[in-house]
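Researcher: Structure for this, please.
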Amino acid sequence: MNASANRRPAVHLVDGSMYVFRAWHSMPNEFHDADGHPVNAVHGYTRFLCELLERVQPEHIAVAFDASLTSSFRNAIYPPYKANRELPPPDLERQFVQCRAITEALGVHLMIDHSFEADDLIGSTVWNLRAQGWRSVIVSADKDFGQLLGEHDEQWDYARGLRWGPAGVHEKLGVHPHQVADYLALCGDSVDNIPGVPGVGAKTAAALLSHFGSLDALLERIDEVAFLRLRGAVACAARLREHAEQARLYRRLTRIALDAPGAESADVLQRRPPPVDQLDALCEQLRFGAFTRSRLHTLLS
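Model: Predicted structure, token format:
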């Protein structure tokens, strides 16, 4: 990260759902709330959020959550979108609500919307604040966020301790940030149940975008593909011609929306701790131990 980037004020934007799921899968199922319901994911997420706040001490931060696996505008465009994922069980749904409550009780701005996903809320916030001179640190391991990284922005895979800017996207995927949505449309994204163009893998997608620059240019000049020094170039050209409209559809899914109801100014993202009794009531309900309670209270002081 260059010196001019470090002089720009930073906002931290956290992909909350990712860290709840990680906690759900990694924490032992031995924690229960006052009603006897499991809260292992809440404990793991709370530890993560406390550690992040202690380590970074951010003045401006937001956590974005997905509201549903089935209500995004992408589901209306393409019903199979994310249909390969099982809906969270009731015990986890309950814990998502509790994780959101913990987030707000620590004075952290919460973003959630039924039509747009967490990626879109973060992307729109990045876009809005970049124009106001802010740089963004996106806390997530999700490769989709690569398309958002401008010159001064970073992505931070917190669990692995890895940070990268726009150049890191090219190192990982072989394409530049502005090509990531096109890349995923071509080679597909199994995590989101987006098939991509049959027979076009990650290396081929990167090679095509390196040559043509964009999906639109590739499809406009599709006759040139057969003559590229590319393994199976003739067959690749035929598949691209056959699946051109699907590729354009998939890009509508892979492109992060920049018109979602994200934060329009950094003031919205300033930490504003609510009354401490809100946190105390949560600690009682979640049966947090003395160490966690002390940690949480220190973050409010």
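Researcher: Any notable elements?
Model: The beta strands are 10-15, 61-66, 109-113, 135-139, 154-157, 162-164. The domain at 177-254 is CATH 1.10.150.20 (DNA polymerase; domain 1).
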